[in-house]
Amino acid sequence: MTNTAPAPAHDRRATSAPAPDFRDLPRLIALMAGDEKHAPAAHSTLDALWVLYNRVLRVTPATVDDPGRDRFLLSKGHGPMAYYAVLAAHGFFGEDLLPGFGSYASPLGHHPDRLLVPGAEIGSGSLGHGLPIAVGTVLGLRAQGLTDPRVWVLIGDAELDEGSNHEAIAHAGPTGLDQLHTLVIDNASATHGWPGGIASRFASAGWATETVDGRDHEALYAAFTAPHPGRPLAVVARVEPQS
Length: 243
What we know:
Blueprint: H1 25-30, H2 39-56, E1 71-74, H3 81-89, H4 130-143, E2 151-156, H5 163-175, E3 180-186, H6 198-203, E4 208-213, H7 217-224, E5 233-238
Parallel strand pairs: 1-2, 2-3, 3-5, 4-5
């Protein structure tokens, strides 16, 4: 993994907690993962989630209910340990909740629950739901006149085996939903493929696309902040195949 230096002052999100440190994430995940079968799925998202929350997303523990906040939707909710670790590192909840992950009384379930997890926008884990929800979220924001908040959704490459995602892709591009940003974690687990790679599927529907090393924090940041006026953005983050 590529360690990220502390974010520039203009990128940092206000929090009363100590400045979050990427190097602390393995320890936080270890409080949860153990022998949990989705630990590799969690680690595949770790770097991208870190860069988003540490340098890109305009949302803090103090602004989780602010209508003008950015929205992050974890569609790849069946491996949420990295997500929980990143949220804890950024002060959305205390790390004392992490050891209880998956237990009966814990708010941190094997799939996130938006009613229980501070900072979570959706309940997720069933493949193929997040991107259509993200499209609907953008349309809902526009209907309210909220054109500044950005909507990010993280999906796994295997979710592209679900037809619901392709309907969302086909709608968002021609509609020009430039508030929409999709992050695809590509760990070579999809059944189907496309000539030229995953990005070509989005490009064919009018999306702006970026394909990067999913462990390179500077490359991720550059891709996440690339201009894409009038078009939604898809960032394909390639990581090692899941064993």
